[in-house]
Structure formats: structure tokens, C-alpha cells
Amino acid sequence: LPLYIITPTYRRPEQIPELTRMAHTLMLVENVHWLVIEDAKIATEAVTKLLNRTGLRFDHLTAPMPDKYKQKKGAKPRGVSNRNRGLKWIRANATDGVFYFADDDNTYDLDLFNEIRKTNKVSMLPVGLCTKFGLSSPIVKDGKFIGFYDGWIAGRKFPVDMASFAVNVKFLLQRPNATMPYRAGFEEDGFLRSLAPFEPREIELLANNCTRVLAWHTQTKKNEPSAPLDMKLYYSTNLVDLKK
Ligand code: UGA
Ligand code: MN
Known about the structure:
The protein is of the alpha/beta class. The chain is 26% helix and 21% strand. It has a single domain (3-234), classed as Alpha-Beta Complex (Spore Coat Polysaccharide Biosynthesis Protein SpsA, Chain A). The protein has helices at 15-26, 45-54, 67-70, 80-93, 110-116, 169-173, 187-193, 207-210, and strands at 3-9, 32-38, 57-62, 98-101, 107-108, 122-124, 127-128, 135-141, 144-149, 165-168, 204-205, 215-216. The two termini are 23 Å apart. Bound molecules: uridine-5'-diphosphate-glucuronic acid and manganese (II) ion.
């Protein structure tokens, strides 16, 4: 069964390096369909070129953040328009399998993909380098879910990171109203709540009862060039196939 990887991305100097790293991970995974969704009005040509070189099954879509959120001061709901576009694609094109929201800048162990394939409803696993605690994870006792460990609970029913859960496609299709809210910090919680009826006790525990870290919330340091940046200089011109 296919594994759908929904990746929000946006135009910046780090975009191609992040997507290169991620593409190389996914090129080692069987039966994966990569949904790369740009927060942009027009798809970035360098991204299309990169995707074409990978040999991966992919769709390159765009879903700009609505202006009313973009203009807002403070924390913005990053990647929400993109992920909702991904959900729309799944509803229109997929009938079974599993999907996973994979931000373009995280780091993924290949075993993650073996684990999330098992998802019947909603599965979860720990995420490293996440929040001030350095780890976000379901707490498991005697093989049973008993709560959440996360540096920022904030009244959330599901205080987890975007990289911590996977969802079965059939399960999503039975929930036509499931959507991610434009609410900074509460995207994961809002989406998981929208999967009701679904309760934390139903979470499928992956990664050896959540004892292995298979995804890390890595963040790339911003490079601030002092001279005006010609984006073209960032992109190689002699493109070759990456696939074997
Ligand atoms: C954390 C969470 O892990 C994200 O899933 C969540 O969307 C985000 O916070 C949030 O609530 O704002 P963080 O590393 O802080 O992630 O955020 P980014 O990696 O900067 O952005 C998350 C994703 O959205 C990335 O894949 C990024 O490429 C994309 N993004 C970011 C956009 O599409 N547009 C933007 O303007 C910014
Ligand atoms: Mn990130």
C-alpha cells in the first residue's frame, strides 16, 4: 500500500538544500508518493527540476497562505494551507494506504517509514529535538498509552509535534470534515481533534512502544547574505538524474 508524504515548503535560500536532503531519504523508501506543496502562488522551477531528477513518484502543488494570515503580526500558521491542500489531494486521489506530514527541514530515519506503514487509524511515535524538553512523545506504561510528554502542553488534547503521527487514508476518508486549523501552535491538536471520533487511548504506539526516536525536529540556521541574493546562483545548471 502506498505511503503518502505531505511536505509543506516555501521559497527561501534553504529550500533546495532542505528538499535535496529529504529527497535522498525518500529515494531509499519503497512505494512512496511525495506530495510537495509550496506556500507560493507559482511553483518554484528549481523545485520542479529537483523533483524530476529524483525518479520519485510525486505531485508538485501550490497552496499560498491566505493574505489575512500572512499580514498578521506574530506567529503565523506555517504550512497549514499546504497541508490542507495535501488532504484535498488525498481525498481526490487516494483510496488506501497511510499519510504522514513531513516538514521539509526535519530529519527522518528510514525505519520511520516501515513503522508508519502499519497505521490502521492514527499512530504516534517520539520526536527528538522537540520543544524545551528535547523530546516530545506519548508516555507508555506496561505497553499502554498513559499521557503525553511535551515541553508545551497549553491545554492541548493532543500535545504532539507534526512529525509524531501518521494517519490511515481510509480512516481519513471516513471523516470528510477533518482539516487543519489556521491557528499557530495548535495545528496538530486541531487536526487530530478534527478526526473525531478519535481519543488518545486509541493511539497506535509505534517505534517499539515509543522507545525509539525515528524523527528529529531539526532546524536549519538561516543564512543572511549581506549582498542581494540572486537565487539563480543557488541552483545548479547542469542537472543530472539522481536516481540509479
Ligand atoms: C513547528 C511544527 O513542527 C510545524 O509542523 C508547524 O507548522 C510550525 O511549528 C508552526 O506551528 O508554525 P517549525 O520548525 O517551527 O515547526 O516551523 P517551520 O519548519 O519553519 O515550518 C513548518 C513547515 O511549514 C515547513 O515544512 C516549512 O517549509 C513550511 N512553511 C513555513 C511554509 O510553507 N510557509 C512558511 O511561511 C513557513
Ligand atoms: Mn521546522
